[in-house]
Amino acid sequence: MTRFGYTLMTEQSGPRQLVSYAVAAERTGFDFEVMSDHFSPWLTEQGHAPHAWTTLGAVAQATERVDLMTYVTCPTLRYHPAVVAQKAATLQLLAEGRFILGLGSGENLNEHVVGAGWPAIAERQDMLAEAIEVIRALHTGELVDHRGEFFQVDSARIWDLPDEGVDIGVAVAGERGIERFAPLADHLVAVEPKAEIVEQWNAVEDAPSIGSGARAIGQIPICWDPDEDAAIARAHEQFRWFAGGWSVNADLPTPAGFSGATQFVRPEDVADSIPCGPDLDRIVEAVSDYWGAGFTDVALVQVGDEGQDRFLAEAAGPLLEKLRAAAP
After folding, report:
1. Is the pTM of this model over 0.90?
2. Is residue 38 flagged as an active site residue?
3. Which domain range does residue 173 map to?
4. Whole-number mean pLDDT of the chain?
5. Would you call 107 a catalytic residue per the annotation?
6. Which stretches make up the Luciferase-like domain (predicted)?
7. CATH of residue 320
């Protein structure tokens, strides 16, 4: 059965609001919740960037049932992988086994802030692979010494470890990344509903099989509002950065850069790629691309902080009913 999630967007809401939305989303019936991990919003109009891990700790205590996930954390520049290993173990204990550590190779927007530069994609992938090795080693509970190409760990041990461990999901896009990371991960993370991503993953030797224990977790933005014009205007203001695609978005360093890169994106361009307005059937049709591609989980992003309470109170319940009725 396809599982449907709710996205806690740190770029568009403050920490207390995010905890409130998390509780409401669980009450409404979402199966899981994912949280972005940013140092900066993509656009100044979004206006927020609270610390994801602090907020997730609060969410873990405020909720009881939903699975939780970072979507996604970069464990290579802004965070050392040993620190990520400790944070993930602690959060898993707080969440009582409901947490998945979602990892990726990062975005310049968030990682450049520590002054370590911004490596090319091949090097970022090498760093991510080594970081996963460090995290896995520390999650054994053993004393770890590591001398790698990118990271050093001296006599480190995680003292508070969950009995069930911490599953790792890795964000991938192209065939090279899939071949590299599928054997290192427990779950697939991707933001495009492409069947070839799941097929290529399942074809990799030693990769956990999607649909047989491993999950393929996607994400899709929507902008529900009773007024379609208001929804389109909000989606354009808040989410026009989405038009650039990952290959562009990963390398832009500041909100000013995103603003300049998207200055010619029109409201109708955003409406063509994001379902906007009150039509729940249109949203179901857009989400169906994911389960049609073999994804097991889809997290919805309701665009904008404005109207989030109304979406959760009025639209989310009926939308989940329609999604579950239509999904395999």
Report:
1. yes
2. yes
3. 3-231+275-326
4. 96
5. yes
6. 3-296
7. 3.20.20.30
